[in-house]
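#lab-general

N.A. 3:47 PM
ok so I finally got the sequence cleaned up, no stray characters, all 185 residues accounted for. can someone with queue access submit it? mine expired

B.Y. 3:52 PM
send it over

N.A. 3:53 PM
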Amino acid sequence: MMNRFIMLFLLLSVFCASESKSTLYVGAGGNYLTPLGEFKDFNKEGIGGRLEITNKNYCKLWYGLRFDYFSLKEAGELQPHFNKEILVSPVVKYAPFVANCYDNKLIPYVEAMLNLSSISGTDKFSQIGMGASAGIGLAYNFKLFSKCWMLEAEGLYSAPNVIYRDDGRANLKSLNVGLSLSVSL
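B.Y. 4:20 PM
back already:
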């Protein structure tokens, strides 16, 4: 299953590289997941990582593809729980509060994602789901080693199986915060 997600990420990355390669950013970072609602009964907080490829051809509108992985810890030994969460998500980020998006500038933005998820657990239901995430972020862009770089901090409300999930499977909502660093190609 993991190999399928990686292949999908790589194939869709080609789609994101459509126009100018100088505006294509590749990044990686870490995430912290806090379960909400019913999800909190099954699992404790989890940590994870992410890979992202983003086209920043337009100053205020960025789009791309993101791959998230979370390792989850059970809330109690005797109850069902979830082990890991893998998300592949088209992402759109919009920075409405800045006039331009160039070097050495803080850029607040809003973002939205459509999630294709695989959430493994101790239950017997299908792992596949579809959901959405929305949140806010703050980016700082700078030049280093003749390349454009971007440091991003974000907070997301995530419901990776809210649109589609197996009957009987819980709607798993969480608050995810993360930090990432990306570089232009």
